[in-house]
Structures are given as C-alpha cells and as structure tokens.
Design goal:
The protein is of the alpha/beta class and 93 residues long. It contains two helices and six strands; from the N terminus they run E-H-E-E-E-E-E-H. Strands 1, 2, 3, 4, 5 and 6 form a six-stranded mixed sheet that branches.
C-alpha cells in the first residue's frame, strides 16, 4: 500500500488485537466497524479500514446489525447495502 493509500479487511471480532498489531505504527486513521448477526448479540466479524502514514486516531464506529429478529429478514441498513442503494458508512455520524 502506498503512502496515503488505504486497506480494508474483514476479520473475526476476537482477532481485533491481532489485526491492529499487524497494521503496526505505519497505519493510522484506523476505523473499526463491528458486524453483529443481530443487534442484541455480540459482533462476530469486524470491518477494519486503515490509511498508510496517517496520524489520525483510531475510531470505533457504530455497529452494523445484519438481521432483525422474527425471521430471515435483513436489517434496513444491511438490506440497503445489499441492494446497492447505500454504501457502507465509514464515519461515526
């Protein structure tokens, strides 16, 4: 990755410390978005984005819940992403 370039990856939530260690001190503007199967369950995956040579601090972003209770229905945010109607938010607001 070139200076100022970014990397985005998905990994198991319990490996967050390993992912951050692998990025090392040369990556900044790290954003972590937890991915939950349901809003009331722990995250099983994380999305991580980092920028090489950035000095911006790490941000933990609001989680993305993939499903709603009561059937095999996606959450509104997940449905919009899957249909191409929305992108994946990488900001906290």
């Amino acid at each position: 990755v070139r200076e100022g370039g970014s990397i985005t990856l998905i990994h198991r939530a319990e490996r967050l410390a390993d992912v951050l260690a692998a990025l090392g001190p040369k990556a900044g503007a790290v954003r972590v978005r937890p991915i939950h199967p349901f809003a009331d369950e722990p995250a099983k995956r994380i999305l991580v984005r980092a920028v090489k040579a950035s000095r911006a601090p790490l941000q933990i972003l609001p989680p993305l819940a993939l499903h709603e209770r009561g059937g095999p229905k996606h959450s509104p945010e997940a449905e919009a992403i899957l249909r191409g109607e929305a992108g994946l938010a990488w900001t906290s607001a």
